[in-house]
Amino acid sequence: MATEEVVLKRIDGHVATLTINRPDKLNALNIETRSRMVQELDELAKNDDIRVVVITGAGDKAFIAGADISEFEGRSPVDQYRVMTDSSVFLAVDRFPKPTIAAINGFCLGGGCELAMACDIRIASEKAKLGQPEINLGLLPGGGGTQRLPRLVGMGAALKLLYTGDFIRADEALRIGLVDEVVPAGDVAARAKELAEAIAAKSPVALRLIKQAVRTSMRTPLDEGLRQEVSLFALAFASEDMKEGVDAFLNKRKPTFIGR
Ligand code: COA
Q1: Which of 72, 109, 126, 167 has its CA 20 to 30 A from that of 139?
Q2: Which atom from ligand 1 is nearest to the alpha carbon of 25?
Q3: Rounded to two decimals, what is the model's pTM?
């Protein structure tokens, strides 16, 4: 029997969906899954037909229940460091140049929550549970959780989650800003696809530049970010997509963007 792929890729028009496919292990991120994800993201980044990527988990129970804890035993600190740095799935998502959406269909814990936070937009099932339970293992997040969580939800809410390891429900995650939308269980994939398609109809050039500018806002002082925004605006101004968008507006028609 052929081995099941740990990451499934589906392409619908300009939207690619990557599904972590280890439902029996609640889609826990083992080494193979991480490296497949990095490989798939690398390919999708280079594929001009793909404009938006959705990341989700297989089955109806989990998005990703964190790092695969069974791989921790017997691993040396040096090996662990290499797993986290050699080809980091979190960095691959963070640096992915096109819009990304996490479709959170269930447990979204530890590395799963960190992967969702590395995405641009998070849509959660009303049944999802989110948290950073590393503290219960005597650990701390290592995929960006201590950095991205406070940026998304503020210091107090972040430290409460990190200190207690408690899981929160999707409505609470929405209230604190950890997710951007909550939808009925069963509607997550459809809603993520709908949003992805709406974004994919926009100018790929402008989308990339928006992402770059907003990422910059999290990493540089305001003056530097504002300077970069003007430069990126000028770059968008030189695109064929900009000419198309303006012409379509002036002639009261729908634009068709080509990504140049
Ligand atoms: N790593 C490895 N395996 C995991 C896992 C993880 N992070 N999360 C779940 N699994 C496995 C379980 O070991 C179990 O495998 P088994 O059937 O071979 O025993 C299977 O997935 C189903 O999980 P189970 O614990 O039986 O489901 P549950 O509904 O009782 O509990 C959770 C669900 C999410 C509460 C529980 O699985 C859990 O706490 N997982 C760990 C979460 C975590 O600490 N993540 C951070 C890691 S740094």
Answers
A1: 126
A2: 21
A3: 0.97
